[in-house]
């Protein structure tokens, strides 16, 4: 052990003065939580490998910690051998996450990818298609939309089909969810 700190501020000072290769960090520490301390250490010394050793296994912590670029995430409830393994993996330049973390991270990354894809799909809608989407989500019938926009019901149906195709949705409920997410309508 090179150094020890009782809080986040002290941990940052220790890293500045001792320049360790690896830091074992808890999330629940006083004065500056472990996530913020990790961010600051990574800015100060990006080469330092940080392993989070914590009791927290909830999704929000795991995702926030992952974003900081840590080299490991080990739960305190696991055997000490898991922390030792994480240290070895970090020393070799790898990343080690305890059991549930990879599942949570993989689901989070899939959700981000899906959201990115839906955003791109939504942006491909024409202004007229967005108008039709809003009116459909408001519960207007094809005939009402046609009258309001001065177009034929067949054109409305064509727009509806194109919107659903571009957004990759199959039901009116899915269209309505998109409209709500994009703030085209409010509940």
Task: Write the topology of this structure.
Layout: H1 8-18, E1 22-25, H2 34-44, E2 49-54, H3 59-68, E3 72-75, H4 80-91, E4 96-97, H5 100-123, H6 127-137, H7 142-149, H8 153-167, H9 172-181
Parallel strand pairs: 1-2, 2-3, 3-4
Please characterize this protein's 3D structure.
The protein has 187 residues and is of the alpha/beta class. The chain has 2 domains: 8-107, Rossmann fold (3-Layer(aba) Sandwich), CATH 3.40.50.2300; 124-181, Arc Repressor Mutant, subunit A, CATH 1.10.10. The protein is built from 9 helices and 4 strands, in the order H-E-H-E-H-E-H-E-H-H-H-H-H. It has helices at 8-18, 34-44, 59-68, 80-91, 100-123, 127-137, 142-149, 153-167, 172-181, and strands at 22-25, 49-54, 72-75, 96-97. Helix 3 packs across helix 5. The longest helix has 24 residues, at 100-123.
């Amino acid at each position: 052990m090179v150094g020890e700190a009782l809080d986040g501020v002290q941990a940052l000072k220790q890293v500045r003065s001792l320049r360790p290769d690896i830091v074992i960090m808890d999330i629940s520490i006083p004065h500056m939580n472990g996530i913020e301390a990790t961010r600051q250490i990574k800015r100060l010394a990006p080469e330092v490998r940080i392993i989070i050793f914590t009791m927290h296994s909830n999704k929000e912590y795991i995702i926030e910690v992952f974003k900081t670029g840590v080299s490991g995430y080990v739960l305190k409830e696991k055997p000490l051998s898991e922390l030792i393994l994480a240290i070895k993996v970090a020393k070799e330049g790898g990343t080690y996450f305890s059991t549930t973390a990879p599942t949570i991270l993989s689901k989070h990354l899939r959700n981000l990818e899906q959201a990115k894809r839906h955003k791109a799909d939504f942006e491909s809608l024409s202004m007229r298609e967005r108008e039709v989407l809003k009116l459909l989500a408001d519960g207007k019938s094809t005939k009402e939309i046609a009258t309001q926009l001065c177009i034929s019901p067949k054109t409305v149906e064509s727009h509806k089909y194109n919107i659903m195709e571009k957004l990759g949705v199959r039901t009116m409920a899915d269209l309505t969810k998109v409209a709500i997410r994009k703030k085209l309508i409010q509940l």
